[in-house]
Write a structure and sequence with these properties.
SDR_fam, 7-stranded parallel β-sheet, binds nicotinamide-adenine-dinucleotide, 8 helices, Rossmann fold, oxidoreductase, EC 1.1.1.100
């Protein structure tokens, strides 16, 4: 496998075990490929059995079907990783949803609010709770929780529960990173900017004005590719980031730093 500039990827994760949730699609799938290419045993968790299994097969890893909102299934995911490969070195807690009924606060019902909180925030609580005991025993581990740049910035095009859930992921990751730092466990919140995924492409193909409204805020003038986010995941997973902890790790093309962008 090559990196985004065509160079062979480095092998920073040989012998490590990485658990990835939301492994079947988008950022999770790109991360599965990258982590495997860097030498990790990858355990692919997804609620969707066909895409999750395909990801695992491609990476020579293991598929575990999991609904990340279910405590027992999440425990089984990390237990299976440990029992199969003997360690849990990396947890990329990434599964998340962004459903259309999560919108402006004026239009979003309580059920829609709760569902997004469960899948995006409670899931990260459950995954960290399950992963940390293994990492404490090893005296080492890297947890990467997928938040979003919207945890840092406000949008007039609101998805209120999504944004609040990602703010929660960010605050929880920071706290865990501080609490477990002296036990060799690092916890970071990964904050991607908008990523060029099939869902986003479809949405913006239908509505170019909507795409333009967002692109104008991105200094680099385009959305991220999933592989660019996966490269950051591999860095945070590896010992190259040994002093990076409790951060909101932005991979956003400069959005959060921008006032006026180039024409
Ligand atoms: N795509 C973006 O622009 C973007 C930007 C910032 C943050 N994020 C975040 O990145 C993460 C991944 O997003 P993506 O764009 O790759 O999404 P995606 O929809 O392509 O993939 C999400 C995966 O999660 C799985 N999943 C959904 N609910 C689940 C559940 N209850 N249990 C287990 N698996 C479940 C899906 O089956 C799917 O394979 C999410 O947390 C998302 O909020 C995405």
């Amino acid at each position: 496998m090559t990196d985004t500039s065509g160079q062979p990827v480095c092998r920073r994760l040989v012998g490590r075990t990485a658990v990835v949730t939301g492994a079947g699609s988008g950022i999770g799938l790109a991360a599965v490929r990258r982590l495997a290419a860097e030498g990790a045993h990858v355990v692919c968790g997804d609620v969707d059995a066909s895409s999750g299994k395909a990801a695992a097969d491609e990476a020579g890893g293991l598929f575990v079907q999991v609904d990340v909102t279910d405590p027992e299934q999440v425990e089984a995911l990390f237990r299976t990783a440990f029992e199969t490969y003997g360690s849990v070195d990396v947890a990329f807690n990434n599964a998340g949803i962004s459903p259309p009924d999560d919108d402006s606060i004026l239009d979003t019902g309580l059920e829609a609010w709760k569902r997004v909180q469960e899948v995006n925030l409670t899931s990260v609580f459950l995954c960290c709770k399950a992963a940390i005991p293994y990492m404490r025993r090893q005296g080492k581990g890297s947890i990467i929780n997928t938040a979003s740049f919207v945890a840092r910035m406000g949008a007039a095009t609101s998805q209120i529960s999504y944004t609040a859930s990602k703010g929660g992921v960010l605050a929880m990751s920071r706290e865990l990173g501080v609490q477990f730092a002296r036990e060799g466990i690092r916890v970071n919140a990964l904050c991607p900017g908008p990523v060029n995924t099939p869902l986003l492409r479809e949405l913006f193909a239908k509505d170019p004005e909507r795409a333009a409204r967002r692109l104008v805020h991105i200094p680099v003038g385009r959305f991220a590719e999933p592989e660019e986010i996966a490269a950051a995941v591999a860095f945070l997973a590896s010992d190259d980031s040994s002093f990076v902890n409790a951060t909101d790790f932005l991979v956003d093309g400069g959005i959060a730093g921008a006032y006026v962008t180039p024409l």
